[in-house]
Amino acid sequence: MKFTLVIFLLTFLQGFSQQNLEKCSLEKDNLEFVLKIKNENSLANKLELITNKIYRDTIYKPDSTYFKNRGYFDNEYLDNLNNKCGKKVLLFVFYKKGKKMVQIDPLLFKENQIVFENMNVSNIERIYFFEKNGQSQAIFGTFASEGVVVIYTNDRKIKKLINKIKTSANSGLAQ
After folding, report:
1. pLDDT of residue 20
2. Containing domain of residue 170, as a range?
């Protein structure tokens, strides 16, 4: 009986310590991404950094308790063990000086992903990063507390893709 109890406790403690060691690294990933994108001058390299960040972040799932009435999450994310990991850096694609925009997040806005998949160096005008400060929150709201990456384009093909996406608030599109 005592042996069984000891084995059970050892197994439980080992599992508990492994869960603590496997905590998410979203905050660390955000910091590394911000440092790299701020110091990068090449559009091609910035686009590659953004692409890698988007797909790296797909391991996290949105915390549905933060769902907003307008269809936005407060971008609080959980790992596979349901640990709160924090918020993501947001990504938007703007067409023609912000007249049309779409938020890119493959977990929240799957229909918007096609816009990003059609982005390449030839159709990007510039990429701008709003740092994790009051400026990003003043422009994009509190859900932009980790910073925002904005890709500007004048490409008509991208405009058509953005226009095909539903204009309802739940699609993630703002006009």
Report:
1. 42
2. 24-174
Q: Which residues contact 12 (CB under 8 A, 6 or more apart)?
A: none
* pLDDT tens by residue, 97-140: 667 778 888 777 778 888 888 889 999 999 988 887 777 777 77
86-104 pLDDT, tens digit each: 888 888 888 876 677 788 8
How far apart are alpha carbons 43 and 36 in whole angstroms? 13
Count CB atoms within 10 A of the CB of residue 153.
Answer: 24
Q: Which residues pair with 101 in a beta bridge?
A: 94, 174
How crowded is residue 119: how many other Cβ atoms within 10 Å of its Cβ? 20
Domain count, the chain: 1
For every residue of 89-143, which 3-state class applies, written as one string? CEEEEEECCCCEEEECCCCCCHHHHHHHHCCCHHHCCEEEEECCCHHHHHHHCHH
Q: Is residue 16 part of a domain?
A: no
Is 167 among the domain residues?
A: yes
Average pLDDT, the chain: 75
Q: Residue 60: name the closest of 34, 93, 27 by CA.
A: 27
In a domain, 9, yes or no: no
